[in-house]
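Give me the 3D structure for Beta-lactamase-like protein.
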Amino acid sequence: MATYPKVSALDGGHITLPERLFITDADPTKRATVPSLCFLIQHPSPSPISPDRTANLIFDLGVKRNITAYTPAQQAHIAQRQPVIVSPDCADSLRNGGFDPSTDIDMVILSHVHWDHVGTPGDFPNATFAVGAGTLDLLANGAGYLYPKELFNHDELPADRTVEFPALRDDGPRRTETPGDTRAVLPVEEGNWEWEKLGAFLNALDLLGDGSVWVVDSPGHLYGHVNLLVRTGDKKWVYLGGDCCHDPRILSQEKGIALYEDGRGGLRSVHVDTETASCTLEGIRKFVKEQEEQGVEVEVIMAHDGVWRVRNKERFWPGCL
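Predicted structure for Beta-lactamase-like protein (321 residues):
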């Protein structure tokens, strides 16, 4: 009989977003305080570092509880996103449900390294961190005038426990090879990680080797952006969409991605590549449709969906989806 992972939502703090920067036809004065959701994935296989328990993964870490731990440039940006609520953060949410983040988590996968997703990595001293290709280069050097290195902490992630997924493209920051003396502990050898087609998704990676947890290449928002697709039942997927969009009405096509002045006489969005971000969303829609045609449900959850959080409080850890 097949066994499936369990997924639980975690509070990772809240931030406030001015709608005019995110959705088309927005009220220019409206600001919405939204969650920065994180997720616990409990896989029934033995933990690679503590075989006496099951394997536990985290997707995204939300907001740091200590705002002063951000760089000055990050803090200036955060000042524009007030109110910011830092408690409970991801680690507190785990503790409140009976898990110790310092001992009970095997792997942390970050969708990307914007300030409201990196949380406090030091809370997970035994976990391996897995990120999209180019992430470590981005943290160290930034990427162009829209993403200067001052907007990132160069030492955000533990160098001796962080691995990057295989590279898929040459543009943007370059992939950092895993050092030979790494302390990262992976459930599948890194050399066996390969991108493959999974339905409408052109590039998906079987993270654990059993088809239950897939990393989905999800370009457009920030260099290295990835999503997670988890098989929670024979007829059920959960798709964790990170920042593919910041409002569920964009995914449903009730709204579009907002454009605004880039400070150099042009237009930009909150995505590094708006057209690519739109294509990523279309891929999600196609995957959902093709799975529904086969009688399989796909629940899509974006990181900042405040409506989903209000409607699903019982599905937060220690509850599950």
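Residues 9 and 39 are 5 Å apart (CA to CA). Let me know if you want a second pass.
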